[in-house]
Structures are given as C-alpha cells and as structure tokens.
Write a structure and sequence with these properties.
mainly alpha, 10 helices, DNA-directed RNA polymerase subunit beta
Length: 209
C-alpha cells in the first residue's frame, strides 16, 4: 500500500496548507469536490481491502478534524458533503454507542416506515450492532452501491432521531434540559437524513459531484 492512502487529503495531491488563513471559498470548494471524487474513484477502482479499512478507521486514529477541515464546508447535497455526513454519523455512533443503541431501539419500536429494514442493523441493536452498522455503511461507500450506503445512513439517522424525540417527550416534564438537548439532536439527525437521501437520489441520477 502506498503512503498516499494514509490521509484522505493526499488522494488528489493537495495539502491542508491550502486551507489556512486568507481562505478562498472557491478554492476550498474546488479542493473539497476534487478530493472527494478522487477518494471515491480511486478506492473503487483499486478495491484494496487494506486501503478500505484504513479509510473506515481513519478518524479513530486521527480524529474527525482533518476530514472536517476538508469536507465539512461543502454544500450538504454534494459528494464531499455526503462523505462528511457519513463520517460524522460514524463518529457520533462511536462516541457513545450505548446511548445511540438506546435511541435506535426506541426508534425501532415506534417506526411506521421501512427505515429499520433499510438501515440494516442486526436486532436487537445493542452497542456492538450499531458500531457494526456504522462500519458497514462507510464500507459500502467505497465497495458497494454508494446510493444504497447513503440510503442506509439516512434511514439509520431517522430511526435514531425518532428515538431521541420519543425519549425527549418522556423527559419533558422531569428533565426539561435533557428533553431540549434530545430534541435538538433529533433535528440535526433529521436534517442529515434529508441531505443524505437527496444525495442518494443525485448519485442515482448521475448528478452528485
């Protein structure tokens, strides 16, 4: 495996220094789109399992900041925007898999849609199962149908958001601050889900760049 795969920013031959002070929004946008396209195209073409695993676990070793610096300011319904949201979702799950599994199970229990089926978490979805599905989704970005990976992430986000909302309703009287925070989390997850679903449709239409 070549060194260029150790950090996502190196896929297209750029350096993070381009993003330092005196930022040019057009240059930042161009860099985000070019590196996102480079990562996806290269990994899909070469299909090296070791490279895929390093990309999946990159933020475990290096944190989310490097990826945030590169892709978080991209428009939400774009390839870099979608990749950022997938990595952000995985970081959220890994940050507190016990809580996320609780939210997911509550959302699963009240779901009236096919979202739990699309998300594909094993049942019962405890901490290990939600951690596994986060890796499966990211792996699917690089080795499977990208639209399916985006749909799975969107569905997972909606199930967790539903769980957060339900638990917030329970806590509204006795723990109003917690209820407020859970409601905010649900709103963020719902927005992420909407962006990922839209990105999935764009990818199927050949219009996600």
């Amino acid at each position: 495996m070549t060194e260029r795969y150790s950090k996502p920013v190196k896929f297209a031959g750029y350096q993070f220094e381009e993003l330092q002070g005196g930022e040019d929004p057009a240059a930042i946008s161009r860099l985000a789109h070019e590196t996102a396209a480079g990562v996806v195209a290269r990994v899909r073409a070469e299909r090296d399992p070791e490279v895929v695993e390093r990309l999946i676990t990159y933020t475990d070793e290096h944190g989310i900041d490097a990826i945030a610096e590169l892709w978080s300011r991209a428009t939400p319904r774009s390839l870099p925007g979608a990749l950022w949201r997938i990595y952000l979702l995985r970081a959220m799950i890994r940050g507190d898999p016990v809580a996320i599994s609780l939210f997911y199970q509550r959302g699963f229990g009240i779901a009236r849609t096919i979202d739990p089926v699309v998300a594909g978490a094993a049942e019962p979805a405890g901490p290990d199962e939600v951690l596994a599905v986060s890796d499966q989704i990211l792996r699917g970005v690089f080795t499977g149908d990208l639209a399916v990976a985006l749909d799975r992430a969107a569905a997972f986000s909606r199930v967790v958001a539903a769980g957060c909302t339900s638990i917030a309703d329970d806590a509204d009287v006795t723990e109003p601050e917690r209820a407020t925070e859970l409601t905010r989390r649900a709103a963020r997850l719902t927005a992420i889900a909407a962006d990922l679903s839209a990105s999935s449709k764009l990818w199927r239409d050949g219009a996600l760049d």
